[in-house]
Amino acid sequence: MSPWPPNRGAGTEAEIDFTLEATDAGLLDRTGVGHAGCYESKRDFMKITKIETFVCNARMRNWIFVKVQTDQPGLHGWGEATLEWHTRAVVGAIEDISQLLVGEDPTRVEHLWQMMYRQHFWHGNGIVRGTAISGIDLALWDIVGKIHGVPCHKLWGGAVRDHIRLYCHLGGGRMEDFYQTDPADARRFGELAQRAVAQGFTAFKSMAVPETMPLEGLRPLKYAEACVKAMRDAVGDDIDIMVDCHARPSPRMGLRFAKVLEPFGLYFFEEPCWPETIEDIALIQRSVSTPIATGERLVSQHAFRELLERRACSVLQPDITHCGGLSEARRIAAMAEAYRVALAPHNPQGPVSTAASLEFGFATPSYIICEAVLDDVPWRSDVVREGFTIEPKGRIVYPNTLPGLGVEIDEEAIKKHPFEQEVLLRSFYRDGSVGDW
């Protein structure tokens, strides 16, 4: 039983007058519910009273937690709006957007989403505003789950699977191993692959494709081939390997990498070129049997629609903390289902993002696997309480049983890890020209 009262929406005076007249006429009972059970009094409603951000430095990024408070004692929701190198911009955007929402009914999630997205000359499909909207949207869904006393996935029709498989980054989760292992050192890739499997993972992702100029010869192709071969030899055929290009290659080089790595049976090949070049991604997908994955940099359903219409990929990777939150992710999932395209959300962020991705996955048929960074900081469990449980063997997650997203953040613990400017990462080609990080 939920400890909070059922919500009653904010009605107009005419609606309230109708309720009172109907009650007097015997059409409604004294609670405002009709004899057919289809009408509620609209004289009072829950309100948003405050929206706050809490920044927590977690080594390679600053987690941005969003707290939406209500006028009901103890009832609040947590979201996350982490965006590397844009922490101050996102915090400012949330402060701006919050002016639209204070005093509104937090259970009208879709209505509030439309307000955040549309009530501004600049629609909410830029990365900063999209991330701000996402963080608030997650917190609103957390509130709705708490009101009803159920996990969010039960609000969307219930669980469609018994568990979800997690995948880690090369080495088991230490992001330096993922980003900084030299593709010229194939043996090291094999060692780190074995480490991930030893931690119980049955799938991991690596960055085995080196930084590459728009057109190069065989050297980078041979490096990538040697790294993936070393990983496959180290872990065997029963482990799923993913390779992330980080959108570094040109379309032509991305195609060449895809063809060179095709014999190794990758689970998917991620961002082989810039996501803006949809025709080129589609060409790569048509040219190889390897599933191509993309979408982490896209921030609206309209961009995903174009990917799907052009059959540009086999795996969509919306980032729930950037694409518009759970509300927009569910619309993207519905489109993907129509095209029979799989979903594997991008999720290298913090604990609320992971909880949201899992809730989304338990209610989404086309969801295949969850990216997770669980060992980013040793004090993670001091900051957050999570409602899901992980089976160490196989690294599979069972459904959260707590209301909403199932997370609670320790605000005092966050204060021990204040904001720090992230290290700016620079990338240059051998001739000194600027490359893609």
From TrEMBL:
Keywords: Lyase. GO terms for molecular function: lyase activity. Gene3D superfamilies: Enolase-like C-terminal domain, Enolase-like, N-terminal domain. Residues 186-291 form the Mandelate racemase/muconate lactonizing enzyme C-terminal domain. PANTHER family: D-GALACTONATE DEHYDRATASE, D-GALACTONATE DEHYDRATASE-RELATED. This is Enolase superfamily enzyme related to L-alanine-DL-glutamate epimerase. It comes from Singulisphaera acidiphila (strain ATCC BAA-1392 / DSM 18658 / VKM B-2454 / MOB10).
